[in-house]
Amino acid sequence: MLLRTLTGNEDLTDTLTAKLETILVVDDNAYVLKVVTEVLLRANFQVLSAENGANAIQLAGATVERIDLLLSDVDMPGMSGPDLGLLLKKARPQMHVMLMSGGDNGNLLVLNYGWAFIQKPFVAAKLVEMIIAVLHSPDRSQAGGHEFDTRKDNRRVAPKT
Prior knowledge:
CATH architecture: 3-Layer(aba) Sandwich
Order of helices and strands: EHEHEHEHEH
CATH topology: Rossmann fold
Number of helices: 5
Largest sheet: 5 strands, parallel
Structural class: alpha/beta
Number of strands: 5
Distance between the termini: 63 Å
Strand content: 15-25%
CATH class: Alpha Beta
Strand order of the largest sheet: 2-1-3-4-5
Shape: globular
């Protein structure tokens, strides 16, 4: 189980500093989505939740209020977390993005996108602590994925005459 240590029963008293920021949580695993949502609600966040990228886009489009953070699983059917982050950042450039995964691609995601990453499994207190840090840090988002592709700069530019 990816979240075996995230039971929702952890003591969050030291991390309850949320100021009702809104977090959009997206995960195709219903158990993970439920537990993460419950943890964030207990930590005094407002939470929107969606089980896939398409539903997250629809929910974000219907939400007039500010969405402060997208917390998305990386690997989901239909649309990946990074693709969802790029799409939602176009409409909400002030939104922070944090990705989560049980896979080992977190360092590449941070490098390519400048977004925060948390490895599953994680404990509730660590998740809340990291979200608070991300929300209160400057956004370091990058265009994502292509800036480290050396092939993009191989095009020939005609010299100026």
